Amino acid sequence: MTQRLDPGSPLHNFRDDTWPTRKDSMADAAKIAASGGGQYAQATPVGYMPGFGNDFETEALPGALPVGQNSPQRTAYGLYAEQLSGSPFTAPRGANERSWLYRIRPSVQHGSKFGKTALPFWRTAPSLAEHDRPIGQLRWSPVPIPKENLTFLTGMRTMTTAGDVNTQAGMAAHIYLVTQSMQDEYFYNADGELLIVPQHNSLLFFTEFGKIEVEPGEICVIPRGIKFKVELVNGPARGYVCENYGAKFTLPERGPIGANCLANARDFKTPVAAFEDKEVKSRLTVKWCGGFNVTELGHSPLDVVAWHGNYAPYKYNLRHYSPVGAIHFDHPDPSIFTVLTAPSETAGTANVDFVIFPERWSVAEHSFRPPWYHMNIMSEFMGLIYGVYDAKPEGFTPGAISLHNCMLPHGPDKQAYDHATKVNLQPVKLTGTMAFMFETRFPQHLTKYAAELDTLQEDYADCWAPLEKNFTGSPS
Ligand code: FE2
What we know:
Layout: E1 2-3, H1 22-37, E2 48-50, E3 56-59, E4 80-85, E5 98-103, E6 115-117, E7 138-140, E8 156-164, E9 169-178, E10 185-189, E11 193-200, E12 203-207, E13 210-214, E14 218-222, E15 228-232, E16 237-244, E17 268-271, E18 282-288, E19 291-297, E20 304-309, E21 314-317, E22 338-343, E23 350-357, E24 360-362, E25 379-386, E26 401-404, H2 414-422, E27 428-430, E28 434-440, E29 445-446, H3 448-451
Parallel strand pairs: 1-3, 10-18
Antiparallel strand pairs: 2-17, 3-20, 4-5, 5-20, 6-19, 7-26, 8-9, 8-29, 9-16, 11-14, 11-16, 12-13, 12-15, 14-21, 17-21, 18-19, 22-23, 23-28, 24-27, 25-26, 25-28
The structure holds fe (ii) ion.
């Protein structure tokens, strides 16, 4: 799709004072809803382009983007042309991802002399022997946001690591606790892409490709190698992050479902070009194979005036996910709720799946409706963004975390079991709820931080203890 901006457009200048605010977007949404657009209707917000993996093009200054070629002898505005490749050059077309960036300085000038730095709470796989806690089903209450100054980098807290970053396989699950915006401070991650799941308050990601604002109920994905900074919008923020070391997230196949439902491509939003032309002392931190490196700059590296290509960050409103489920009896596997999947080399065996449990109707007849009891080769890290989770009405509150690792049994607690087996089954709407799961083929190893966290519920596994032996020896 093409996004060429008229020079007279208010989008022409992307300085902070003209950036459309969240209030503007919400006012737009309210107008659409009032015009009969439906409960969740929201046109593509100002500053974004719709689609998943499109060949986008966008320019923040008119004529900045070359026409008909990637690398002209001289570019408009004296910009440097630079390619950012997210896949090997020779990847098949369907998996080939790259973008061309037209920027004030080439990336080679965004720091060359690096020093080592430490972010001790941001851990990377393999990180196997950090504690001696035995296996078990684990759950943590929400971690309070502390008073101390924490940015998106210093406030990152790794809960689990899986796989091996050196083989570009596996993932890490983090929480973030942010009380301070990044000021003249920038970051990129060579180890993987970041899938950010806000749970409390919004975040503004100013990336090389443009600005993305996300609030609880939305997610943001920043691919490997893209520079960005993170600002607070409406106060201290908390949320979850999946750091995916493997192949990029993509949309799952739909099989017999057909061409629609689940996550639809048009609901993914990629930002239009925006840049800073700032000559100030800055820092750029780079995460590379689990280590952190820092360099000093005399300018902002967010200096991309125009870009085109299919390797770019994006956001998605989870409330636009159209779930498909049981309409007569029984309960399909939770894979029906997959929003994004990062495949591995083995078909159907995800490096990591991002799965949600959104608002939906529950209508199955003569069926046990909550998630059933099970054991699984995959490892499941769950969080709750808002509302109540149907398998665990208590103890799993918004901001909480649970971990059900490879081949550890889990399922509904006593309260959920009793309700599900005794209730007179009528269609029921599960309203105002949004849980999610990072599910990986690799065992998730607990960090020392997670193993010793104050909010760990030591009595979690007791939730299954009250389940009675109901066996009578007779079929009734
Ligand atoms: Fe499970």
